[in-house]
Amino acid sequence: MLHIDWVNNSTLTELALVGMAYVLSALVGIERHRQVKSAGLRTHTLVGLGAAVFTLVSGYGFSSITTTDVILDPSRIAAQIVSGVGFLGAGVIFVRQNVVSGLTTAASVWLVAAIGMACGAGMPVLAATGTVLHLLTVTLLSRVARQIPVAGRGRDLTVHYGDGKGTLRLILERATELGFEVALKGTRRQETARAGTVIEANLRFNRGRVSIDHLVEQLTDVSGVQRVVNAAGADSSL
Fold it and tell me: 109-124: string of b/e by CB count within 10 Å (b at 16+)?
């Protein structure tokens, strides 16, 4: 029969480690929540908390049944946490019109599981270091990355937008903000029954601080733009 020991020598340690996992995971979740990501404060906090509890169960939960004939391997549960969180992270990755989003959030979910496991394994300094490095990565390192020009040749994009709304000016402003040099190669006017006059502008984008896929996503969000077609044939429509 299983004996329940409500309070033992490791209880205070377990509670302190669980509490630390909760706080550190919540810090990561707050940053993702501020960025309005699909996995925010609650998801990250629960993932980190669950990882810590699983790790503590692995380390302390079976000590009462350990004998010379029973050998426990605490690392087995940790290995299952790593593979299990991978499925959870995959659920926040989306592919829309050849644009992949959610990769950073999936990575942060994976990281908070590691932070929770570090807390559960009794390594609070490592857990705190992982949290600080995450915050530095998504703030300072992101700013550095935006200042690095993207290597490679320019890309032609065809942008369809409504006439007479100043949309071309907004497109050029948005591209310039992202560090692109834009050249207008030509335009074509089309009359449609549903949308009225539609301008089809062929634009050349050079350099830039972000990927072309991210540029396409940003241009699609510009008011008046109906769709953006890149040279590879991918079509991003409203």
Answer: bebbbbbbbbbbbbeb
